[in-house]
Write a structure and sequence with these properties.
Largest sheet of chain B: 7 strands, mixed
Helix content of chain A: 40-55%
Distance between the termini of chain B: 50 Å
Protein name (chain B): Pyruvate dehydrogenase E1 component subunit beta
Number of strands of chain A: 9
Bound molecules: thiamine diphosphate, magnesium ion
Distance between the termini of chain A: 69 Å
Pfam family, one (chain B): Transketolase_C
Order of helices and strands of chain A: HEEHHHEHHHHEHEEEHEHEHHHH
Enzyme class (chain B): oxidoreductase
Organism (chain B): Phycicoccus elongatus Lp2
InterPro entries (chain B): THDP-binding, Transketo_C/PFOR_II, Transketolase-like_Pyr-bd, Transketolase_C
CATH superfamily of the domain at 54-64 and 88-324 in chain A: Thiamin diphosphate (ThDP)-binding fold, Pyr/PP domains
Strand content of chain B: 15-25%
Strand order of the largest sheet of chain A: 3-4-5-9-8
Number of helices of chain A: 15
Oligomer: heterodimer
CATH architecture of the largest domain in chain B: 3-Layer(aba) Sandwich
Chain lengths: 405, 327
Amino acid sequence: MSDDVVADVTRGQLAGGVDHHESTLRSRSRGPFDGGPDMIQLLDPEGQRVLHGGAQEYAHHIDALTDEDLRGFYRDLVLIRRFDLEATALQRQGELGLWVSLLGQEASQIGCGRALRPQDHAFPGYREHGIAWCRGLDPMRLIAMYRGVDRCAWDPKEFGFHTYTIVIGNQVLLGTGYAMGVQRDGDVGTGDPDRDTAVIAFMGDGATAQGDVNEGFVFAGVNDSPIVFFCQNNQWAISEPNERQMRSPIYKRADGFGFPGVRVDGNDVLATYAVTKEMLDRARSGQGPSLIEAYTYRMAAHTTSDDPTKYRFSAEVEMWKLRDPIARFKTWLGHEGIADHDFFVAVDAEADELASNVREATVTMGDPEVADIFDNVYVEPHRQVEDDRAVQAAYAASFDDEGVA
Amino acid sequence: MAVQKMTIAKALNAGLRAAMEKDPKVLIQGEDVGKLGGVFRITEHLQKDFGEDRVIDTPLAESGILGTAIGMALRGYRPVVEIQFDGFVYPAFDQIVSQLAKLHSRSRGAIKVPVVVRIPMGGGIGAVEHHSESNEAYFAHTLGLKVVFCSNPTDAYWMIQQAIETDDPVIFYEPKRRYHEKGEIDVDVPPARDLFSANVVRQGTDATVACYGPMVRTCLDAAKVAEEEGSSLEVIDLRSVSPLDIDTLTTSVTKTGRLVVVTEAHSFVGLSAEIAAAVTERCFYSLEAPVIRVTGWNAPYPPSKIEEHFLPDLDRVLDGVDRALAH
Ligand SMILES: Cc1ncc(C[n+]2csc(CCOP(=O)(O)OP(=O)(O)O)c2C)c(N)n1
Ligand SMILES: [Mg+2]
């Protein structure tokens, strides 16, 4: 991509030239997308270790990691991207009803997910496949949901990972309430690393407009609840850019709710890990909530149903490609001698194997039983549901009889 | 060139355009309705042609969308808001029920809130959770709101304009799985009926089938098959479920003696129950059989792989008709 194109993008040309009518409203330009001087960054897009935006105070969390931990991050990043690409391909081939890609947001999610401890509890949206991965959820559970075969059929207690939530923002209040429960159980500030518990709730940039999200901030603030609000600012809410959702940076809003807010380079797995670790520790030790804005980019369409060419220029996507989260980390690992060629080759092979396993398991996945419709509607039996279960069964059986006759 | 072939989606787009051309106070707001033209493209090109002041891409907050639409209506505008999917209207429920529905009566008639809330409704598109709901009963149960469904391109074109001209708030349901069904519209011939009248879309003598929205096509298809099998069904597209055109229903049932009500929504405390009760009260002595309901099952909308077993289809409608005719 030429520098001119980048300059055009960063000058905010993308926002202009849409309508023929002069608006009486203020319109804001887009970009420059550099995250600004406050953004915490430990690894720049070229793979150089840096200390941007006050990163100094977080860097010690990286020093505490072993080389094996770091290689593990890389493996996670590559595998989750490969899984995601395979799921997108499966959707294109008609094997899934829908897929919601995390392409470009791998470092935000792996850095964050690896900072969680087993007793912590995460409240995802619908794009948190990397968090699910870190929580040990079988990715096929996600595939089953987007294939239309199942609901969110996992027990959140088993994984410390709540159901996916599609209604924007709902999960933020649930997470806040869960954190209030953790407080009441006395599972904060004991100093026991296996007991002290933090909650993390995920949301997108668009979601920050939603009432539930703001109410979650208020409740967590007044209760000093042990929760981290993790906002992946991928710059877009379907077709609407940040400018249509907000007038001040997301991380700065925390101040108004009475807790700290940090913007981190969401394409830098080290920075995302370090900042999330810091804020989770803070919550576990009883110092209350915080807001992390992971500054990143949605490289794919909003979902497989979306056509982003209708509302954004490819130059913007091209520019973000240069900040790829995996490329920079690989460069750094190689340069530091933490990982070598053989390791990278082995991870790629493992990714291919994962993809082929996912494909196989998807195309051979059975359909649900129709009678499942009536299961789990209530904990206890409900007369009208049970009546319909019987009516549906008799109706279905009437076709069997026809077949026999 | 007055007669045009259009899909329901295009007809809605054309109807919105006509309303905006006619009345400068009409404006549109919702998520992704501007530059993208909505996820179903119902508002496509309207922002380009009418500007950002009249077609507003809102922040992602349904309570905000509704509350500010009401505020703009108080200032003399006629907002048409889009709720992206049926299952996302609930954050706006409070504004709809507490303000939109009640302001006229609360102000003893001083205030009118002519807001139209467009909701793509229903299943059958292979979607994930919250994208396939039939939640009309909540709104029909809320006095102060009018609730209508379009089922074909001609109605889509005219009903959206009539809804916008209505001084009461209107919940305007669009059968999303039918968006791409085509029909001929004569845009020069004014609408045949007012917004709140039912339409007898097929004449018949043996039983009346009452339906609305996405089920109209299903019931018409069923009536064709029934005819081949020797029974004559009268199909009524109710179009409005609040108010309910009870006279058209009772006239038909008095003639046929049988009523089958078909809804995508489940039966328990739903519109089908209201229709059955209202007709039974008025036509008890004409009825040859109990009113039969063919509806979605009393259970949450299932994963899409089995949605076809949840939704009433041609066979289930005919099964219901058979049960009515068995008496
Ligand atoms: C209450 C509600 N309204 C609308 C939608 C439809 N919708 C799904 S995702 C989305 C945009 C979300 O944007 P953002 O919060 O930035 O998250 P991202 O998808 O970019 O990760 C919208 C409007 C929804 N799921 N829930
Ligand atoms: Mg976003």
